[in-house]
Amino acid sequence: MNVDAHHHVWDLSVRDQDWITGPELRPLRRNFTLADLEPQARAAGFDRTVLVQTVTVAEETPEFLALAEESELVAGVVGWTDLTRPDAADELARLREMTGGRYLKGIRHQVQGEPDPEWLLRPDVRRGLAAVAGAGLVYDLVVLPHQLPACVKAAEALPELTFVLDHLGKPPIASGVLEPWASDVRALAALPNTVGKLSGLVTEANWRSWPEGTYPPAELRPYADTVLDAFGPNRLMYGSDWPVSTLATTYSGVGDIAAGLIIELSDDERAEIFGGTATRVYDI
Questions:
Q1: I need a labelling partner for 27 at 20 to 30 A (CA). Which of 78, 153, 240, 265 fits?
Q2: Extended beta strands in 111-159, E state
Q3: What span, in angstroms and rounded, lies between the C-alpha atoms of 260 and 67?
Q4: Is the pLDDT of residue 214 over 70?
Q5: 135: helix, strand or coil
Q6: Using one digit for the tens of pLDDT, what is the confidence trace for 104-122?
Q7: How many whole angstroms separate alpha carbon 181 and alpha carbon 169?
Q8: Element at 127 (helix H, strand E)
Q9: HEC letters along 187-219
Q10: How far apart are CA 51 and CA 74, in angstroms?
Q11: CA distances (Å), 184 to each of 117, 146, 148, 156, 225, in order?
């Protein structure tokens, strides 16, 4: 089973995506639905997907769960809830009891937007993370490179919780700089309760300068090689990051790039990245 472990949908008539600002993101200012995604996913050989939150709005997660209940494509949802609320455990239980609640597999917060680089280490957040673990869910990390040291400390403090590093911590690919990102990712990967998500790389790169049809672009390889060495194939999973990735390439193009980056692996190792890891981690 091939799994796209990271994509989004949104309907601007339901709510604004206030992060879509500026001319570079203008192509994203339209609706992107499961009906748009499904034929592309099927054509690219993906059987199931994981739908991931986009905005810190409580209503979004129940909507995503309802979509999953009706979809033959979506096998899991990574939603959002306010982890700092004292009753976070009760709220997670409530979400699990909703229509489609069985599809709730993880929780995510836009930590990348938090001004405090150690937001994950706050006592109220740690209590919420413990509630995520207690609910049998995983926690997706969407962070910037300077926040990776806090991710390491959080994962050390909560060995019972699986942390999934979305977009590999958004490495500075466009600049070509590896450190300290590489060292921090290795420190995170050294912990057994962490997983990396091979996603979001194309939009961190100089994609406008890529020669047409150049898959995979050479500038991505040092970053992919770093995480392959650090996590290994059985703790890496593929995600398209659709539709954000459409800024750089097509849905199938993202998959082609990822396949090119892992071409030297065995068939079994590639199968782990394109499905096996996500199936286990998200209990698909």
A1: 78
A2: 138-141
A3: 32
A4: no
A5: coil
A6: 999 999 999 999 999 999 9
A7: 8
A8: helix 123-134
A9: HHHCCCCEEEEECCCHHHCCHHHCCCCCCCCHH
A10: 7
A11: 14, 9, 6, 14, 15
Query: Crossing angle for the helix pair 60-70 and 88-97, nearest 10 degrees?
Result: 30
Packing angle of the helix pair 34-43, 251-261 (nearest 10 deg): 40
What global pTM score does this model have? Answer: 0.96
98 phi and psi, to 5 degrees?
-75, 170
Say if residues 91 and 85 touch (Cβ distance below 8 Å): yes
Q: Does residue 82 contact residue 88 with C-beta atoms inside 8 Å?
A: yes
The domains located in the chain, with CATH, are 3-281 (3.20.20.140)
Q: Which two tokens stand for residue 251?
A: 């849905």
- pLDDT the model gives residue 213: 62
Residues composing the chain: 284
Most distant CA atoms of the chain, gap in Å: 52
As separate numbers, helices (DSSP H) first and strands (DSSP E) second, the chain gives 10, 8
CB distance 144 to 110 below 8 Å: no
Q: Scan for tokens 């509630």, then name that residue.
A: 131
Q: How far apart are CA 90 and CA 173, in angstroms?
A: 40
Q: Which segments of the chain are extended strands (E)?
A: 3-7, 48-52, 74-79, 104-109, 138-141, 163-165, 194-198, 236-238
Chain-centre distance of CA 58, in angstroms? 19
DSSP letters along 54-94, please? -SS-TTHHHHHHHHHHH-SSEEEEEE---TTSTTHHHHHHH
